[in-house]
Amino acid sequence: MRGNSFAESTNRYGTRARGIRHEDCVSSERSSYRHWVLEKAIVDLCVSNGITPLTNNDIDLLVQSNSTSIIFEVKFCPVGKVGTQMRNAISQLLEYRFLYRERLRADVRLCVVSERRPSNRVGWMLSYLESLGIGIIWKDEQGGGLACSDFTKRLLGDVLPGISELSSVSMS
User: What backbone phi and psi angles, to 5 degrees, belong to 148?
Assistant: First the structure.
């Protein structure tokens, strides 16, 4: 399995190389930076709870605590691409849970970290993620910090008590 060792998350900068391809360098740099900002916000949340998250070539962030593992998949979401990015995140999280099953704790929890809250045409994805048992954290456009669903607070709160301080939205 390629890239299967974990390293301290603070040692990681930029995005993973997946081969050579023609790409808009400015757009790539912006998306890499926005991804990094979201990732750093989760790292800060973890560190404030006394946990050092890990990362590797596949998993954006991994928290290991006692009998629980939390896999975070961070998604930069351009306007109009939130649905696509959520679908990508769901499939990646499920794939990583399977691929790394022997290295993860007995209780594996999954969480998407998104630049935008799914709304309007894809607002249903909040309930869909909850139905799959996947949490979601997004950038709070008003406060500039992070926000999440009430479900996410319940899902991750015992491992990351600081999540209770985030703004939240009820799906009921």
Answer: -155, 175
Look at residues 129, 149, 119, 114 and name the one whose alpha carbon lies nearest to residue 38. 114
Residue 18 lies in a domain: no
Distance CA 87, CA 73 (A): 11
Q: Is residue 5, in this structure, part of any structural domain at all?
A: no
CATH number of the domain at 50, please: 3.40.1350.10
Which residues make Cβ contacts (< 8 Å) with residue 3, sequence separation at least 6?
Answer: 56, 57, 58
Number of structural domains (the chain) is 1
pTM: 0.82
CA 100 to chain centre: 16
Residue 27 has what pLDDT? 52
Residues in the chain, total: 172
